[in-house]
Amino acid sequence: MAFESILDLHRSSYKDELRPSFYVDFNVDQIIDKICKNWGENISSFYYYLPADKESEDYRREVMADVKIVSLNEVLMSFVRKMKQHQEIINKKEFVRRDIQKAAWHISEVMQYGEALQELLGALQEADIRSQGMISLKESLETYLASEEFKTMYQTAGELQQERNSYHFKVKYSNNQVVVSEGEIAGTYDKFLKDNLTEPEKPMKSPFVENADLVSLEMLIIEILQKKKPELFKNTLAFYEKYKDYAKEVYLQLGKELPYYLAFYKYEEKMQKKGFAFTAPTVDETQDMFATGLYDLALAYVNSEEDKEVTTNDVVYHAGETFIVLTGPNQGGKTTFARSLGQMMYFTKMGLDVPAMAANVHYFNKILTHFTVEESVETGRGKLQEELVRLKPMMNEEGTNDFVIINELFTTAANYDAIIMGQRVLQHFIGQNSKGIYVTHLKELTEAHESVVSMRAMLDEQGKQNHKIVRKEAEDIACAINQVNKYRLKYEQLKERLS
Amino acid sequence: MKTYLLYQDREWLDTKPYFDEKSIIQDLGLRILYMMAAREVIVEGGNVKAISMPDTFIEETVKTVMMVPLETEEEIRYRQQVLRDSLENPEFTIGLYDISCEVLKKWDEMGRKDKQKVGQKDPVSNLVGDIHLMELFCDGLTRIKALFQEYEGKLMSPGYKELKKRLEEIFTDEVQESLQQILKDISFYGEGMTVDEVTGNKLIMRPDMELECTLGEGFKLEGFKLESLTSKVMKYRSPASTISKVQTFINSRVPDSIQIPEDTLLKDESYQLDWGIVRHVMNYCSAFMFRFQKFFDHLHFQTAFYRGAVNLADHYKRFELEYCYPKVSDKGTLRFTELKEVVMAMEQRILPVGNTCDMEDVMLLIVTGANQGGKSTFLRSVGIAQVLMQCGLMVTAKSFESGIFPSLFTHFTRREDSAMNSGRLDEELGRMNQIVEHLGERSLVLLNESFATTTEKEGSVIAYDIIKALNEAGVKVLTVTHLLSFAQRMYDEAAKGQGVEFFSAQRLPDGSRTFKMIQHEPELTSFGLDLYERIVLAKQD
Q1: What is the Cα gyration radius of chain A?
Q2: CB within 8 Å: B219 and A104
Q3: Cβ neighbours of B236 (radius 10 Å)
């Protein structure tokens, strides 16, 4: 199959889709901001649309695995840098006025393009690549770079560049006149500076370097040189005419799309150095879906800035289990847990690594979320009504096999009503063959369906929140004890503090 | 370039002062020392004529250096050697300090601080500034080198000798000449038209240069190599003059040449080229100068300390205080003869009593005795001497020998304002807690009338607990106390050879005091009665 894009098998139109609400709910937007830092504005948009189908997800996952090959990774980074410089040369070429200058910049542009592609192909041939994306890219490059068209062009450009570089001439400046002649000099004054001040050699920067255009003094010098060595300038112009549209769009696009993997991987490496685990999830439908050492990546980043660790948790959906109903004390890490699970689903869908020690993730069509928001003043709707309005489209969707994350629904409704509504919501999604997690303060929801699993946020021995989430029967929470604990005013605690 | 006058192996950077320097300064009254160090004693015909206004930089410097303890015997010896050279060659010390002051002052006038704000000035005036800076550094270094050569053979300390050596190695005569040559070659730059005083001709500096270039990307010029560069003085002629016109005609006949008329874009570009070349040349020079950029700051700071010491020595002489270079010993040793409390001597202009002491293997000294008997003065004099020794300065005694305690603390309570008040005790204990928290490996704690803000009984218990614990933890403690039951308890417990020593104020059999401290067991009275009697009875007479 011909290579079209490193992000997908085929270029398709879903790229225009708006980003779903879960980006904000899971704090994925914060993570993406950090990933894209130092990579330019354009790349963040790649993280804002999801692959169309399972095949595309797998395509990316395979590419991601190849991106992690050390030798290849370095060259991919270098390729992206070179293609960026290539674009800068194009900008210069477009900026300058005279044809002879455009032609001169064009040589550099072709050289940059050719070098970048050749280096990339070399690395692809060296590395043990397995992904369909990388393999078809390699094949495509092999054909292109071996073509007569490319070979002749690249060789001619190289010869012209060589000829230009090896042409030396002298400029003598005195009495308000500049005299130009061919040949080389010894650099006597430079040697005097270097030896007498015992300094390492410092090449002189052109005073005209700021301007991509030739300044008039340079232009006058070039005019003299054109008389002295006419063939160099003629051939350069001829090359420009002949190879005006040389670049293949698919490779230019590659330079822009590769940062999708590279930026993520750099971020991943940085976090790993700080002790946060990442894993490439397996996607084996025949095994239980699970994750060990799962954590909230957005929170981990914030904590890492303060040298703090982050709580990790394990989760599993055994065969036949559909929904986790998560209960427990406030500030017990329930929302964080829901977010970390959401992040795992998102990054898996994107074909990237997930913040966990190990994970096996099943395929779902969509990720649906419902997180509590502050009461909407503008619409004047009550919170319950607002929640139901947002819930409606989620439940109306035709889809089956979605992953649903619900955080604190119906908190303003009467308990009795809330329990019934919650049970109905759960049963609806279960009926649609979906899975997910439902965070709630209603322990009754753990009994909504036989396939529901109860998990609970735990307290430590002193009754403090330790953000551990475990499989356990839901139970009522005594709020008063929490208050006392919070201020460490229990008898034993006071004894300990005063000892 | 390395200055290294305060330490053998480093500049004054990342220094660690005493944990609670404020208390040390206040409790020991050190302020007078750095105030005096900042003031020169002006002598005329062998008599003190005047005391100069303070040099605030010296004052700050001496204070700063004083508050950072040296940590090894080698460090102390290194500084003492430079100090000895400085005191024996005061004119040299003053000269060195003055040069550094002048260089920095001119640098400031040239807008040193403005330049550090990036983008404040246009690059051209930055370049002019660099050239002036090069002249300034060149001149300063030349003078310093000459000063060192003048004192050849008189400076014995490794500090000064090595500095001289480094200076001669880096700022060689050859370098000095090269820099002067370069300044001449680029003198066309930045200098406008001058008028010849003899002929009245207008003169103009013109560059003469030859370069090699290659063609770079986009046919831009690159690969510059500089073959020759000179400035030549020419008579200025109006472009309209006949001679100018002839010259222009001759020029235009030269093949492959570009004429650069005045007031054109080309002329501007030729200036850019001039400027590029000067910048290139200055790149070499700046890298060279960069080695000295911090040198003058370091030299200024470090010589300020020794300059201050010269002043301080003059004040010692003025107050007839004998001084010595203290000797480093092990931590249990405290040995001195005729140690005088210098702060009191300078502040109250009286010659204090000299104390003598000889202790080995003593980690706890408890001083008790009569009120107004000189106990606190004694403790302060030891503390001051300790600080002076640990910053390399001279001590006002015939001899002084002690261990090194980089972790030095003072915990002083002034009797007169020690009203019984739980808030004050709380504050005192809080300070003690701070001390305990920050005790280091080699710690010395000076306690002066600590825990006097509560009853004697309670205070004694607190003092006993704390001092006992500190002592057992290997902390050296010198304490002056009126807590006699505490002192008695320590005395009863301390068998011979326990590393505990007791001093009290000397009291002659007739009840009169000498204000000297002597080795003596604690007595159960602080002889307040004596004082009472002396004053009350005197009135009755």
Answers
A1: 31
A2: yes
A3: 15
Separate counts of helices (H) and strands (E) for chain A = 18, 11
Cβ contact A179–B283 (<8 Å): no
Q: For residue A313, give the H/E element and its range.
A: strand A313-317
Q: Does A196 contact chain B (CB < 8 Å)?
A: yes
> For chain A, which residues make up each domain, given as ranges?
13-164+246-259, 168-223, 274-498
Say if A108 is an interface residue toward chain B (CB within 8 Å). Answer: yes
Residue A481: its pLDDT value, please?
A: 42
- The percent of residues in chain B predicted with pLDDT above 90, rounded, is 47
What does the domain layout of chain B look like in residue ranges?
322-540
d(CA B10, CA B517): 41
Q: Which residue of chain B has the CA closest to A92?
A: B218
Rounded CA-CA distance B77/B3 in Å is: 17
pLDDT value, residue B453: 59
User: Distance, in angstroms, between B243 CA and closest chain A CA?
Assistant: 13
Token code pair at residue A304: 């890492």
Helix axis angle, B21-28 to B375-390, nearest 10°: 130
pLDDT at residue B81 above 60?
yes
Q: Which residue has the tokens 């404020």?
A: B22
Judged by CB atoms within 8 Å, which residues 150-179 of A form the interface with B? 164-179
B254 touches chain A (CB under 8 A): yes
Window B:94-133, CB contacts with A under 8 Å: none
Nearest to B78 by CA among B147, B9, B136: B9
> Which residues does chain B have within 8 Å of residue A157's beta carbon, measured at their own beta carbons?
none
Give the closest of B251, B256, B272 to A207, CB-based.
B272
- What DSSP designation does A445 have? G
Q: What is the DSSP string of B232-279?
A: EEEE---TTSHHHHHHHHHHHTSTTEEE--TTSHHHHHHHHHHHHHHH
B348 touching A, CB under 8 A? no
For A114-123, how does the pLDDT look when each residue is reduced to its tens digit (9 = 90+)?
A: 999 999 999 9
Q: Write down the residue that tokens 């003299």 correspond to.
A: A224
pLDDT at B122: 63
Structure tokens at A42: 């354009």
**Both structure tokens of B326:** 């203290």
pTM for the structure as a whole: 0.64
Collect the ranges in chain A with pLDDT lower than 50. Answer: 13, 375-380, 477-499
Q: What is the pLDDT of residue B120?
A: 45
Rama region for A479: left / alpha / beta (φ>0; ψ in -120 to 50; rest):
alpha
Alpha-carbon distance of B418 to B204, in angstroms, equals 80
CB–CB contact A172 B226 (8 Å): no
Output A157 or B199, whichever has higher pLDDT: A157
Two structure tokens written together for B274? 């001039």
pLDDT over threshold 60, residue B416: no
Q: Is A498 on the interface with B (CB under 8 A)?
A: no
Residue from B173, B227, B237 whose CB has the most chain A CBs within 10 Å, to mutate: B227
Check if the beta carbon of residue B380 is closer than 8 Å to that of residue B370: no
Which residue from A minimizes the CA distance to B259? A177
* pLDDT value at B528 more than 50: no
B221 touches chain A (CB under 8 A): yes
Q: Which residues make Cβ contacts (< 8 Å) with residue B302, sequence separation at least 6?
A: B3, B5, B6, B11, B12
List, in order, residues 6 or more apart from B334 with CB less than 8 Å away: B357, B359, B362, B365, B382, B401, B402, B403
Question: Which residues of chain A make contact with B256, given a CB cutoff of 8 A?
Answer: 179-181, 224, 228
- B322-540: CATH homologous superfamily? P-loop containing nucleotide triphosphate hydrolases (3.40.50.300)
Indicate the CATH number of A274-498 among 3.30.420.10, 3.30.830.10, 3.40.50.300, 1.20.120.430.
Answer: 3.40.50.300
The two structure tokens encoding residue A447: 């009994």
